[in-house]
Amino acid sequence: MTRDATPTRDQPWIFRTYAGHTNVHASNRLYRDNLSRGQTGLSIAFDLPTQCGYSSDHPLAGPEIGKVGVPVNSLDDFEVLFAEIPVEKINTSMTINATAMWLLALYVALAERRGVDPKLLQGTTQNDIIKEYLARGTYIYPPVHSMRLIADMYEHCLHAIPRWNASNICSYHLQEAGATPAQELAFALVNAMAVLDAIRARGTFTHEEFEQCVGRVSFFVNAGIRFVEEMCKMRAFVELWDETTRDRYGVANAKYRLFRYGVQVNSLGLTEEQPENNAWRILIEALGVTLSRKARCRALQLPTWNEALSLPRPWDQQWSLRLQQILAYETDLLEYPDLFDGSPVVAAKVKALMDDASAEIARITEMGGALVAIESGYMKTALVRSQAERLARINRGETIVVGRNTWTDGLPSPLLAGDDGGIFKVDPESARETLEMLRATRSRRSQGAVDQALRDLKAAAQGGKNLMPMSIACAKALVTTGEWATALREVFGEYRPATGVEGQRLSLEGGKVDAVRGRANAWAAQHGVRPRMVVGKPGLDGHSNGSEMIAVAAKHAGFDVIYGGIRLTVPEIVQSAIEEDASVVGLSVLSGSHLEIAKLVLDELEKQGAKQDIPVVLGGIVPDDDLPKLRALGIRDVFTPKDFDLMTVMDRILDVIGAPRESQRAASA
Amino acid sequence: MSRSAQPAPDPAPLDAATQALVARALRLEKHPLARLVSLVEHAGDAARARKASLFRHLAATPSAGRVVGVTGAPGAGKSSLIGCLALHLVQSDPAVRVAILAIDPTSVDSGGALLGDRVRTHFPVGERRLFFRSQATQGDRGGVGRRTWAVSRLLRHFFDLVVIETVGVGQSEIEIAHLADATALVTQPLTGDHVQFMKAGVMDIPDLFVVNKCDEEALARRSTHELRAALHTARIGGDEPRIFQTSAVTGRGIAELAAYLRGLPVRRPDPIHFVRRQVVETHGTYGLEVFEAERRRWPAGWAADAVYEDLEAAALRAVRARLR
Question: What is the mean pLDDT of residues A165-193?
């Protein structure tokens, strides 16, 4: 094959950076800076209260405002957030799920206020509720009502916002929650089927329109460090989706059967130890989803080297963006057709993945589909098991993680040496500005219009009418995020899914496990009851992997473990600890609010007169600077991603509760 | 008096610290209540004297609480139902006090347990009239054991209704019936649950039946009909027990079930069952024969009034003396 002097290059994928923090002013500056540096799309991170349907002045919101994303309370916030950004030109991806309809309604209301036809808006609302139940935790309503909101959005977008992807099926979070490649394929596809089944069940589309809807379904996929397998996984996705849409949904037009996907590469494998190594991991993971032309992503967002330490700084994000630009523009990657066609190795791997995934899909379909497998806890249990096995392999040294369990001695990283220690912190004062704006909005709007809009919304929810137009009306009336979500809570109720930890076993054995169990037994013999640990996941952060693994490990070590799932308030956790007469409380906080939450928990224990009796430990992404602060508050031990060895964690918790060591037992015997 | 027949209780009074806990627990303060629960859960002989003193001390306060066992297959929705029921009770009656004891299995490998029932109960914080406690089976036969027995006896001094959620179906039905005033079997519509119960031979144990997850009418009617047919076969000649149709989603039947449970007669279980269990566990079936012979020599009426811990101690003492 000959090549022209100026080869025809493929269009590069869309470059994105998942961004948003502090408040709408700071995030708007960040977006404009990123766009000026060559980013070609926006990927908006919302803070947890916005994602969980609470306004910033709700008690649960307090410690979380602006922490993991930007807070949005009303249309007034959107005005600022998109100031000087042409919404008719830019492709905007919003990582928003339970409240996706609300955020899209705000975007439409903003466009209309600016005189932009909503038909021009392009982008994606993540809006994948199933993976929220499984992995990410920002659900609000029960599955059937959540699916109705999603179907309403597809129905509305089809004609009113035809270039909008109403939802995005995420397998990303499934891998973060432990999914094997075959599980990632299978769970994502049954999830997509649940969405399409819900849309088809409406019976309001012609077949032609339904095909268009299928064509709007896009995916958000993870790419891990085993990049050859990951590349094969992407090819398997392409083929399985083509098959599913053709055979199950009768989609004739091949254009609508295309597997369209965006990627965020894996964060789970990034290490706190020798964090500079993460730069290479990110590069290699990016290759898995770009190398094969047939299975190349449409949009790519990369994490930053310091993600296991904190939220990224603008420079960190720029560094990751540069990686994409070099890959797309300096290399010859985009000049070739598919590199792997005809490779027997790749073909065999793809087939093996497809076979495994198809078997799993058949199992879940047999059960009654994704919603049934959510409610029964089947999928969640499978993920928790995979995650426990993955961690056990790292703990046993079977899976090598450089800098973590192998080649652990390294020179100090100069990247961490700057004045800020190489990490980003949200200014705790910045929430005031958000609350100020919310107060201003509440005082200047017409309460009558708000009440009317909310009444209409609830009536439509009860009556089964499409909720999108009512939500846009709410946005224009300056209804707040919390008001919109609560109106629907009153109609739909709230949901708590299975935790998946029950019945789990760790495949860890050996001297360390025996020693830890010996200490737990010795404590039990001393006290006449087994040590009891309350594992608490306070606040709105739903990334429950850490707390689930600790719960499973504590049981493995011989504790009686009380795990109440995610999104508990601090008083609820403290009440559990007191009623259960806990020997220790373990808190998991990944949102960066560890100082605020630790203080709240210890104050509440003190108020209940139990601070002396119940020690508290904490796990999370905690910068070194904060360790002495947590200690000073009264947190007895702190665990970070560095503490990946589960039995060592348990051993330290046994220290906290004063369990005797082998040597002490021998001495006292 | 022969050394083997010495049922007289050890007269040690309750220590001041525990007395203080009891006084605060009577005001339904959660922290002292929780610590008393741990105290009576305390295994081993060392704690028996203190437990006996505690129960003797408590005997002075009337114990009007009813103990209701709730059993049923995993997935029948026991936890959600109990949560709904408890919330309904405290919201509809400003005086009523409800405790829940939820039991989960202990892992054979590690001795640890995951106690996950709190996930499905979402109670208002600071409501003293609701108390939730989890318990691990710790190898107790049937998942309900001496510790359940001890905690239920404790809690009924403080609460009007003590609901015990068992692990699941099987032996636990039979065991729970020994310590509860009434036992409810929860079934899920159209899952063939009652066929399983019939096979397990536990259909004649429950005092009442609850067809849960009756979210819609047709389903409720069909399942109730099936259950009634199954009961007809299994309980020939007996009165038909009450069947309730409930739904934690719609709230259906919760008020009726609550009212029924509150109106149940207090039927104090016979502690001798647990004494026998303890004797068998310590001295085997031969020990049990010895015990039955010894028991006939106990003063008339003594066992009926004694605190369980004293009975147990006397029984073990008697058997040990004879076996020595």
Answer: 93
Cβ distance of B136 and A558 shorter than 8 Å: no
Range of the domain at A310: 168-405
**Which of A240, A245, A269 lies closest to A255 in space, CA to CA?**
A245
Among B157, B162, B180, residue whose Cα is nearest residue B28 = B157
Residue A561 forms contact with B (CB below 8 Å): yes
The answer to whether residue B250 neighbours chain A at the CB level (below 8 Å) is no
CA distance A257 to B116: 42
Closest residue in B to A558 (Cα) is B112
Helix axes B146-155, B308-323, angle to 10 degrees: 150
Per the structure, how many domains does chain A have? 3
* Chain B residue numbers touching A505 (CB-CB < 8 A): 107, 109
A503 touches chain B (CB under 8 A): yes
CATH number at residue A392: 3.20.20.240
A145 among known catalytic residues: no
A3 confidence band (pLDDT: 50, 70, 90): very low
What value does the mean pLDDT take over residues B184-190?
Answer: 83
Q: Do residue A113 and residue A261 come from a single domain?
A: no
Within a domain: A141? no
A400 & A461 share domain = no
A385 touches chain B (CB under 8 A): no
Does B194 have pLDDT greater than 80? no
Measure the CA–CA gap between B210 and A608, rounded to whole angstroms: 37
Query: Does one domain contain both A258 and A309?
Result: yes
> Do A260 and A290 fall within a single domain?
yes
* Contact pairs from chain A to chain B, CB under 8 Å: 111
The answer to whether residue A144 sits within a structural domain is: no
Asked, for residue A273, whether it belongs to a domain, the answer is yes
Please tell me whether residues A518 and A482 are part of one structural domain.
no
Cβ <8 Å between A496 and B110: no
The alpha-carbon gap from A525 to the nearest alpha carbon of chain B, in Å, equals 9
Q: How far is A440 from chain B (nearest CA, A)?
A: 32
Yes or no, beta carbons of A564 and B43 under 8 Å apart: no
When pLDDT is averaged across residues A84-95 and rounded to a whole number, the result is: 93
Contact A575 B126 (CB under 8 A): yes
Structure-block tokens of residue A463:
């009556």
Q: Which residues contact B235 (CB under 8 A, 6 or more apart)?
A: B203, B204, B241
Q: Cβ(A270)–Cβ(A320) under 8 Å?
A: no
Quote ipTM for the complex.
Answer: 0.92
Q: How far is A133 from chain B (nearest CA, A)?
A: 14
Is the Cβ pair A563, B30 closer than 8 Å? no
**Does residue A355 sit in the same domain as residue A389?**
yes
Active site residue A18: yes
Quick: pLDDT tens for A216-266. Answer: 899 999 999 999 999 999 999 999 999 999 999 999 999 999 999 999 988
Nearest by CB to residue B31, choosing from A502, A503, A608, is A608
Q: Measured between CA atoms, how close is B136 to chain A, in angstroms?
A: 7
- CA pair distance B163, B66, nearest whole angstrom: 8
A613 and A546 belong to one structural domain = yes
Q: Residue B99: phi, psi to the nearest 5?
A: -115, 145
% of chain A exceeding 90 in pLDDT? 65
d(CA B277, CA B279): 5
* Position A120 in a domain: yes
Catalytic: A172?
yes
Q: Which CATH number is B66-262 given?
A: 3.40.50.300
Q: Are A303 and A395 in a shared domain?
A: yes
